[in-house]
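Moderator note: this is an archived Q&A kept for reference. The question asked for a predicted structure of one protein chain; the sequence and the answer are reproduced below.
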Amino acid sequence: MTPGAVGLVRLVFWLLPLALGYLAARSWGRPRLVLGLLLAAALLGAWVKPLPLGWALAVLGFALGVPLGRR
């Protein structure tokens, strides 16, 4: 694998917990969907190196997606 491909795969692994956390927050009101997306974000976040970075990105994505006062 070339260094560019490795970098691209690593970038995708870093962005997936962020995107899944964001989607979980935007789907608030559907508990099974929220739980599934948060679980997927946590599992993918555990694969991101260094370890707490993936979980921090999942929490950041969830915080960015929370609808504040909008319905």
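Archived answer notes: The two ends are 46 Å apart (CA to CA).
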